Amino acid sequence: MKKIILLFLSCILLTGCTKEEKELHIETIIEENNNYKISINYPKTNYDALDKMIDNYVTSSYQTFKKSQNNHTSLENSLELNIDYTFYQSDCIFSISLFKSENNDTEVETFNYHYKNNRFFELNDITDASMVYASASDILFKRYGNIIDIQRLHENLKTSLFSLDHENLYLYYPPYTLSSTYADTIIIDIPLSKLDIQMKNITPSFEEVYPNQINTQKVNDIIDMNQKVIAITFDDGPSSYTKEILSILKEYDAVATFFILGNKVETYRDTLKLSIENGNELGNHTYNHKWLTKLNDEEIKKQITDTQEIIESTLGYTPTLFRPSYGSINARVKKDISLDVVMWNIDTMDWKYKSVDKIVNRAVRNAEDSKIILMHETYARTKDALPKILSILKEKGFSFVTVSELKEITLLRKLNEK
Ligand code: ZN
């Protein structure tokens, strides 16, 4: 405890991180009986986003352990869960590692959070990660020699598990990731003096810059409930056409819903920020567009949660809508999804038809109040068709809304009928 307080004080003196410092606490859970022993210690920082992540990890570890304990009929082997932590605060960051040991299994989880800019950061945000991995590879060979499996090292050298303190950067490799025989977590410490770590490269999260602009509901305040509304949706993006699509939408006073792929989020971070800023909605369209009904339950969940997570961590935005890749869905896929599944009523078939006029025609000919139009933001022809579609529909008296706004309007109209 002494050490922690010391670090806490020194960082205030040294770093000049101006945001008001919050009081740190250590939470403790200790339980024991004849069958099991639990000892959990973890920091509570009073920064909500960070505490929530740590809490989730601790709670799920605790519950899983208790559940396995209930299923454990033999009293001969008592069970033990232990979670301990290391904690470092400096330069407006927290770097927290949790070390879990459950009987003979060990696991490390790390949380690296910039509390002034309100975001979690990765190695790439603060340094040249490839240099870090090159150093790690040298150290691993020197220290572990032939314990390390060279093939595994090449495949698994990159790790998202890292932490910092005043001396070192630590990389964590879970058991068996670098070796088929070594059953412990491998920890590599690299002196900070050998690395170029730049905390100032951690940019503020979207909420920090635009605190009031994430609410997509703002547009519907200006929509007349009796006016015809239509929701345009774009799948498979973002792409090189998205920026232009955004400015066309803006020009026609329109918003749309973009069902995006997780694996593109980081590349198009700025475009997506602009999209949100303009009042558009983002939905989850899986991580890399796999055929969902061919995947097992775990893979389906991963497609969805990985996408949610990268959108949340990159943009500070939480999608509530999901559209399955290829529109491929069945009861088994549905049960793994807590998001609202959104399909469409009007298919422009822009992936198939190369003619702009044909796409325009398919979008407008069946346009009716409350319908959802499907397009793809990955084709130049779709972008070219957009101004025509918007101007024709506008002339027909439609207002353009996001899918969530459409749902809200539908609900409000129903309530008004009663
Ligand atoms: Zn798609």
Written overview of the protein:
The structure is a single chain. With 418 residues, the chain is an alpha/beta fold. It has 13 helices and 17 strands. It has a six-stranded mixed sheet with strand order 1-2-3-4-5-6. Strands 10, 11, 12, 15, 16 and 17 form a six-stranded parallel sheet that branches. A three-stranded antiparallel sheet has the order 7-8-9, with helices on one face. Helix 2 links the parallel strand 2 and strand 3. Helix 11 packs parallel to helix 12. The longest helix has 23 residues. The protein is elongated and about 70 Å long. The site of zinc ion has 5 residues, from strand 10. The site of zinc ion (ZN) has 5 residues, from strand 10.
Give the bound compounds. zinc ion
Show unreliable segments. 1-15, 205-220
Order of helices and strands: HEEHEEEEHHHEEEHEHEHEHEHEEHEHEH
How many helices does DSSP assign? 13
* Secondary structure: number of strands: 17
Mean pLDDT: 84
Q: What is the percentage of strand-forming residues? A: 15-25%
Overall helicity: 25-40%
Shape by Cα distribution: elongated
Instruction: State the secondary-structure class.
Output: alpha/beta
Strand order of the largest sheet: 1-2-3-4-5-6
- Distance from N terminus to C terminus (CA atoms, Å) equals 61 Å
Largest sheet: 6 strands, mixed
Gyration radius from CA atoms, angstroms: 25 Å
